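Our consortium's second objective concerns turning raw sequence data into structural hypotheses that experimental partners can test. To show how far this objective has progressed, the report includes one record in full. It was chosen at random from the queue rather than selected for favorable results. The single chain below, 340 residues long, was entered without modification.
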Amino acid sequence: MSQQPILIWGAGAIGGTLGAAFLRAGENVLFVDNVKEHVDAINTKGLTITGPIFEGTFKAKACLPEEVEGQFDRAYLCVKAHHTEAAARDLVEHLASDGYVVSAQNGLNEQVIARITGENRVVGCFVNFGADYLEPGVVQYSGHGAVVLGELHGRFTERAERIYDLLKQFEPKALITNNIWGFLWGKLIYGALLFGTALTNDSIADVLDNPTARPVLRKLALEVATVAAINNIKPEAFDGFDPAAFGPLAKPEQTERSFDEMVAHNRRSVKSHSGIWRDLAIRKRKTEVDAQVLPIAQVGKDSHVPTPLVLKLVEMIHEIEEGHRPLQLSNLEELERAGA
């Protein structure tokens, strides 16, 4: 087993959980994070993982981006989507010429990274497990979720197989695919629904279970699914979420069944609210809305597909971020009016 460290750039919810799993599997890991208190805690006490799946404190080296030295063959970019470009520009300085970056994030960040590193050095990745950064040195891994890997060009390669073998150490049900863009767009449809639930203070499951919320969430998801369909992308299903149930050809009972399955999945998770809600309600910081949701409207505009609900959602999230709008269920009623 190679002992050259795996570079985990962004040691929060996703990066911390993945890095700890790789350490458990016997790999050497270097964490990079821009929160000095988190870096110091990892260096002093190790990274602690809490939650129902595995727990422990894992010793590893951590550093700030400006402290990274050397070249690395294997890197996982795990920062928030809106930090992707800046992080990729820092990371590429430390990426071996034949190395690769796995984008373990939300959104279409592979496109952003590829512009900086070259497409041949980017591997697509889709993650949907439940995790939260709790405090410096502590990450909660709260629920299993889909982990899917695939080359951007859709072919199976030896390096993808090697990465896949490692990811199975973390999530035994991980998949390798020739349609990674389908999974990423499937997550964009699901992500739009999550951003919708984050307009309220209710749990994900409670909002998805609310009969008054379902029609507007259905319309929101349909906008995203229509943009995907018009661009010949076939969104893939995951974790009880069937993107076809929100597509242009979906029957009402198919949509209701998918809502029910998502409610059941979310009620099983320790994580009741989304990371988006945590950013808005607890951490009082910007969400990934501009990097994760706004590009859907931009692709829609290029494809002549109107996305009024997507644009209104972005606007409302900004208002919450700025403290001008409270988190409440009536926000969904206002969102629905934007599509009238």
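The partners drew two points from this record. The mean pLDDT is 95. The first helix runs from residue 13 to 24. Both points have been shared with the crystallography group to help prioritize constructs.
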